[in-house]
Amino acid sequence: MIKRRLQIQTIAFGFLKAAGLLNGVALMIIVYFMLSRGWSAISWEFLTQPPKDSMTAGGILPCIMGTISLCLMTILVSLPIGVASAIYLNEYASQGRIVRIIRLGINNLAGVPSIVFGLFGLAFFCIVLKMGVSIAAGGLTLGIMTLPVIIGASEEALKAVPDTYREASLAMGATKWQTIRKVVLPAAFPGIITGSILGLSRAAGETAPIMYTGAVFFTPELPGSILDEVMALPYHIYVLATAGTNIETTRHLQYGTALVLIVLVFGMNLAAIILRSKMRKKLRI
Amino acid sequence: MKRQHIDKTVQSGFLLVALFSITVLLLIMVFLFIEGLPILDHISVKEFIFGKYWYPTDDPADFGIFALILGSVCVTLLSGLMAIPLGIMTAVYLAEIASPRVAEIVKPIVELMASMPSVVIGFFGMAVVAPFIQELFDIPVGLNMFNASLMLAFMAIPTICSISEDAVFSVPTALKEASFALGATHFETIVKVVIPASLSGICTAVILGLSRAIGETMVVLMAAGGAAMIPGSIFDPVRPLPASIAAEMAEAPFRSEHYHALFAIGIVLFVFTFIFNLIADYISHKFRQVGEASL
Amino acid sequence: MDSNIKMHTQALDFFYGAFQALYNISIDFIENQVTALIGPSGCGKSTYLRCLNRMNDLIPGILVKGQTMLDSQDIYNPSVDVVSLRRRVGMVFQKPNPFPKTIFENIAYGLRVNGIKDKAKITQIVEKSLKQAAIWDEVKDRLNESALGLSGGQQQRLCIARALAVDPEVLLMDEPASALDPIATQKIEELISTLSSKLTIIIVTHNMQQAARVSDRTAFFYMGKLIEVNDTDILFTKPELKQTEDYITGRFG
Description:
The complex is a heterotrimer.
Chain A: H1 2-38, H2 44-48, E1 51-52, E2 57-58, H3 61-92, H4 97-111, H5 114-128, H6 135-159, H7 163-171, H8 176-205, H9 233-243, H10 251-284
Antiparallel strand pairs in A: 1-2
Helix pairs in contact in A: 1-10, 3-6, 3-8, 4-6, 5-6, 6-8, 7-8, 8-10, 9-10
Chain B: H1 2-18, H2 20-36, H3 45-50, E1 54-55, E2 62-63, H4 66-97, H5 100-115, H6 118-136, H7 145-169, H8 173-181, H9 186-197, H10 199-215, H11 218-223, H12 241-248, H13 257-286
Antiparallel strand pairs in B: 1-2
Helix pairs in contact in B: 2-13, 4-7, 4-10, 5-7, 6-7, 7-10, 8-9, 10-13, 12-13
Chain C: E1 5-16, E2 19-30, E3 34-38, H1 45-51, E4 62-70, E5 73-74, H2 82-88, E6 89-92, H3 103-113, H4 119-132, H5 136-139, H6 152-165, E7 170-174, H7 182-195, E8 200-204, H8 208-214, E9 217-222, E10 225-231, H9 232-237, H10 242-248
Parallel strand pairs in C: 3-8, 3-9, 6-7, 7-8
Antiparallel strand pairs in C: 1-2, 1-4, 4-5, 9-10
Helix pairs in contact in C: 3-4, 3-6, 4-6, 6-7
């Protein structure tokens, strides 16, 4: 009887383990195809030249620069607002109606589909605020989309700061704001940075929100002002793979661009993951 | 007294900034309605939601999105069929069975899955999976409901897995020990104690995962085939709601009927995900895990 | 009122929501004396201590009744500024809690937040405070190293120096030696005796020998009530109440 029950357990655990492994296998398959088929496209020229011959040759420099500019704009919007929101929620607010409303807003903002952010950005930033298709409009759209991630990460980082720090500071006659600025924020800083990198990596890979707000099909110019329209890596992949005139002949460029995007996004994630595990080890001591 | 006054001002400042998120959410709703509701001058709500034909550029145009809604629902359910069991099983494996060393490797893998740009997954579905399943199942096109669902499942798994894992992990040890002490095996304890105790968290995870799948754009835009018709089998191409918006916005003249119709689709999509989130919020608050009392 | 009384509470009641944690506590704290608060855990002695610099204000849903006077001012009067109050009534916590900053910055912190900008003055006060807390010789060569690298006992003396830097009139100590080894504890106790010539000290401790060694007066708490308060040598030798005698002789419970 016991033996049978243990046999069931062994089989069941086998299934659970297989499920866990399957995720890794799926991830590896995708990465493998992007690597094996995109590797040949990667060259110095690919990374440093604009596209040529109706985007059937040349490089992706404007896309890389465009994605970087959009990311900078995004972080400029979401980091200050996100950190300030988290400070209010974690340091000042007591449980009450206002906090519930704020949290409702954040939770639902996190669930809004990316294409709806795109629609909103188009209607509000591009048209009403007259920004047109630009880094500003695209970055603002990505910024509000990233906001919940930054708020969540910052709150977690603030929560990890021991209360004894706050008490010690207050007991010395520091005001709350002095305590937050000089003790709490410095201690929470690494956690906030980790969260911001994660949020930013998500923004870097998004396509739908920038399709009609920041990114364009083709522009040979590198971004000069925040009211410029740009090319972006994710949108470039989409364009080459669906709307290009030579979908089959530019396959290697598509894989190559995808590979660059993956490296960029995974690089940011790995940096954040490593930073976080280092911090956790430090806290344990 | 001066710095104490600064303190009050600073607090009010932070409150104002904290209200930004809810303000943006309201703004999003307002703009969706401003740009979407005018479509109702041309067509009734019933015709819009239940109309079977989506020919936005014909003259006269048809703006029935029933096939699109059905496309979204089918793709989401099919992806849920794959992602829910896999996500929960992975979560249980990570929280209960895997050694800390293995967990430390698998968890970042799940996080990397979550961070994979959707356009890359859509591209993968288009360039690698489509020809593969076309041959495997001997079907005319590889861009279809099955392909999109498979790709969406990949995107939903990390959400389902990480939230479920938190829920499973926070089941009190005392509860598990009580079960072990009665002679239950580890697996029996998982099935009869751990999973029931973390059910509310798992439900929240599933709803948020599905919510992410129904709102996802690039994957369904690239891999679902894009035919605005009511699907007859899982190998039929479909055109889910987000794909329609993304594909047609470029060609819809500003403030035309078509433009308003696409924003109205945005409203439908927003309402879908909003309801999903409210349910998730309700479950996680109503059935909050309170130690041993949650069984 | 006796002019020697630095601080006192009159009929102080304390509530966490519906739960009353302190009942009708009246104690006088005499200037430049050490008063020990003793009693079994959960008796309310720490809660009481945190009423004296309004540290409990940080907890939502609390209510304080009665009078709590510092000199001739009720500290719970709405006109009182809690920030300046806490500068006058300093606090040392149970576990050493230095900031993750350098040793120098830990001490300088309180000066800077209280508006002192003059560098020479800051340096001078840092040195003075570290000397007062009897830790100067151990740290004078490593002022720019992280305070987290100090031993537990050194950290606690650093925290005392940090509290002294802003020149408080009253120092509250919440079991300051409970996390330390006997040698470090002895150093803290010696320090308390020295400091009491300039400061009014109120110390919570669960260690009766410690109370007997360092304090001039002792107050015994039980179940949120003040049972007895008297000069330490009297309370420990001839307590008026049997409950007190049972506790200090270890026949409790």
